[in-house]
């Protein structure tokens, strides 16, 4: 009998934690203004944000760039007040320390000894604090451009698209930012359902020590299960962790696979490169119901169904995949997943395995289902070279959207740039090059703000070729959780006599 993955209480907890940005808040002390609804909620800036970054690479020739930004207040207004932020090693050595909103900071590390980082920002630096690590490994088994956004720790993560096959080395990195042990469970689901653990192992719980990181080789969790497509479900029984999946495929390349957006009936996967030579979709349906999905590629002229792959059937509790080949055909695009029957929306998670180049010059990357940009979102590491950075903006449904794009100064100098763009409903807009700071030196950040319409989904593709190989990585934009809803309080002396 096949075992299925339930939608857990932890998943609901994680969603709530993500919405709150894992931030400590101070409710306003003042009473509502005259004429306002009694007890109406207000949007308030978060006062504390936490991030974790996984250890970058095991290669002695790896070169890693770290970039961090606390965005300027929305709309470009100058912010006041004090704040502090830093990312540091387990031993307390500071690696990144932003000093003011709107100006990024950078750092570099070489070799295999670069550790995982944890950190926090408070005060004026907390709202929207973002960090990114980008690692280039020019040769060897794990060669490639590996990019990952440092993540907010949580309790529930989905990674469709990992593998236990020969020729793949897939690790899940678990980083615990807190002072107590985190207990983590990893379950793997293949095309036939839950994969059983190795004989003699009674429990799959992994203890992650305080302020430390643990790497788990996924193929070590199951006996001789060489499966090309697997979905990993990472949950915590106690504590919280940052979780990222690092993938290396012999002869193809390496990159990070970010966690998919949480299970939903419709998903958006933005940022497929225009010159992708192979695209493979991996999807998983938690819960008790099968999912029938309609596939469409959103491009500049609208959304079309890929010939021969208009639909995908995903059995409950099982991983399904489909080879979409050279899906984009010369235009950067976004894959849209929606229920084939609008009256039956079964939640799924999904990701894309993307290859650029051919033969010995191949490189892989991943595009996971992502949440909308929301009010504001940032990707911290971009390069000013005209061909290095491509910004992809999609409005899958809803109305035409107006978006403000702000390029920060570079980590080593330059002046910010701002541009407003319109994205038509039902289309994808590829911006190459996107706005860049004048006189940019070093890496810079791109911040998106939704001014009207949408919802907008977005991703940034960074390409840093090496010896003819189009090394690349894709990071999605997601709401930066810079504000939360805080109910307004009013004095009510009557509670003293109740």
Low-confidence stretches: 9-37
Straight-line distance between termini:
56 Å
Rounded to an integer in angstroms, the radius of gyration calculated over CA atoms is: 22 Å
| Estimated share of beta-strand residues | over 45%
Counting H and I runs of at least 4 residues, what is the number of helices?
Answer: 1
Tell me the overall shape: globular
* Average pLDDT, all residues: 88
Describe the fold and architecture.
- The chain is mainly β.
- The chain is built from one helix and 36 strands.
- It has one helix spanning 9-20, and strands at 41-45, 48-53, 63-69, 83-88, 94-96, 105-110, 117-123, 130-137, 144-149, 156-162, 168-176, 182-190, 193-194, 205-208, 212-217, 230-238, 242-249, 253-257, 267-272, 276-284, 291-299, 302-304, 311-314, 319-325, 333-339, 349-356, 363-368, 376-382, 389-394, 399-407, 417-423, 428-431, 444-454, 457-463, 472-477, 483-487.
- The strands form nine sheets. Strands 10, 12, 13, 14 and 16 form a five-stranded antiparallel beta sheet that branches.
- A hairpin with a 2-residue loop joins strand 21 (291-299) and strand 22 (302-304).
- The termini are far apart.
Topology:
Blueprint (H helix, E strand, L loop, with lengths): L8 H12 L20 E5 L2 E6 L9 E7 L13 E6 L5 E3 L8 E6 L6 E7 L6 E8 L6 E6 L6 E7 L5 E9 L5 E9 L2 E2 L10 E4 L3 E6 L12 E9 L3 E8 L3 E5 L9 E6 L3 E9 L6 E9 L2 E3 L6 E4 L4 E7 L7 E7 L9 E8 L6 E6 L7 E7 L6 E6 L4 E9 L9 E7 L4 E4 L12 E11 L2 E7 L8 E6 L5 E5 L11
